[in-house]
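Below is how a single chain appears once it has passed through the pipeline. First comes the sequence as given, then the structure the pipeline wrote out for it. We keep one example in the README because the format questions we get most often are answered faster by looking than by reading.
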Amino acid sequence: MSARIRKLVTILEEAREEMGRTLPVPVRRAAAVAVIENPFAGRYVEDLAELVAVGEELGHVLTERAVAALGVPGPSVQSYGKAALVGEDGELEHAAAILHPKLGSPVRALLGGGAALIPSSKKRGGPGTPFDVPLGHKDAAFVRSHFDGMEVRVADAPRAGEIAVAVALTDGGRPLPRVGGLAVGEIKGIDGLR
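Resulting structure:
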């Protein structure tokens, strides 16, 4: 199945200052969101394979768009995350089918790797509902400076029979991080943790 996409939205944030301090390097976060038709809205379906296939397709489309918005090569991306907001006639399992079995493979392929799990969230809501994409370092989950999130919102989505799916990427960690943990320069990137 190919996703029936009603709308694509790309959001770019660039932090240049935090608490009155100019950042030595601006930190950018980009999210790409697809608003798609939910083929199972309003009914229970046992086999969600169609949405699993949609997840793989969207992993590629959304990651390409977010990388382009950041303006860096894929391997230069530091953090990633994914999320889905299901309209009222859908269920959270529809979001899980999109996000979990196959969406991550094309994300990692376009970024040239990613040993850590891709943080995710699922939510149900109507048009304009904000939802958060959790973020973590792509190669090492213990990099606390990259524990973050990005709020996204599409004013007219999701409608009752739709799902808004987002992939978010960053080119750095939080501005002015100072809570310790594994430093980026200490990453081994083997087990996804350190």
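DSSP finds three helices and seven strands in the chain.

See the next section for the split statistics.
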